[in-house]
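Notebook entry, structure prediction.
Reason for the run: the old model in the group folder had no record of what sequence produced it. Starting over properly, with the input documented here first.
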Amino acid sequence: MRNISDTIARLAAMRGRTGLFPKQDHDTLSDLAAFGSNPGALRARFYEGENLPHGAPLVVVLHGCTQTAAGYDYGSGWSRLAAEEGFAVLFPEQQRVNNPNLCFNWFVPEDIARDRGEVLSIRQMIEAMVIKHGLDRRRIFITGLSAGGAMAAAMLATYPEVFAGGAIMAGLAYGSASTIPEAFDRMRGHGGPSSSDLQRHLAGASLHQGPWPKISVWQGSADKTVAPSNAEAIIAQWQEVHGVRGNSARKETVDGQMRQVWCDADGNEVMEKYIIAGMGHGTPLQASGGDGLGRAGPFMLDVGISSTRHVARFWGLTESGTHRTAKAQPVEDAALQPFAPKEKLRPVRTDPGPEAVAASSPKEGIAEAIEDALRAAGLMR
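New structure, fully documented this time:
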């Protein structure tokens, strides 16, 4: 584990990057005003397009740190693809009261436990969207970038009965970290739970016994923010429940990039992994050409392959091309019923007012300086 001086240095570097994202004026999203108790105090935005058919699929999209829902949508092209293919998109959005850098709190245990905090807020949004728009509970999917990718992994682990598939862009496995120093270490590829421990985290996150959502993992080989070893950890976490642990992956080239895919006993693709050669931290795009989608920008990287289109094909939302997708799987009866959490809800967070400042000792001043740095980096409330 890194020492506190190294941690503060990393915080300072992160703070220096918070201005990378320009204000986005390309906002075509609507607000979902009411969706439950919202214990994670998140905002809910969505895109439904015109003439959305009854029983349409739903894709949940989680932005990365310092991004907004509208900005990530503009870069990734999810709402444009939804308009083309006839599905709805839900965009949970982090608020600064929860995290100053707008990161989803994937490293905070109370935000990633089933029916608690931020994961419960997102689950409530999904339920509201299904009811409001008459969507298909059997075709709900989730994806996210970086902290959003790690939170997508948390949603897939804590509510696996809800999702038919998930895609994690430069994210981390569920249960990788539960403290601030651990979060930094895991992002850099230092330490972390063993494969068997990660599988136990997944098994203990819910009472689900299957079937399990399909998993797509995307990672840049030159990512200096989230080390590529995290992609291997995600694959290791999900191989056991899909029954492919120890199986050799099939390899093929897609748009000039290497794709690895794992198939179940019936030959259906249940897991895939792309390591994009030479790519840094971000979502892979193909922004130009006849099949172009999205716009390049900070952490939205035009590398000649559209993760948005390929993920949609892997999930069966668009023409599958060379991918053999699994047939629709039966879901648990509980997933087809209106959602009603059984566990005790966490109180809704509110923006605290300023507190009176009391005289402090030098030791207390050091502690406050550290806490201020942590808050500035979005790793502490």
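Summary: The longest strand covers residues 269-276.
The old model has been moved to the deprecated folder.
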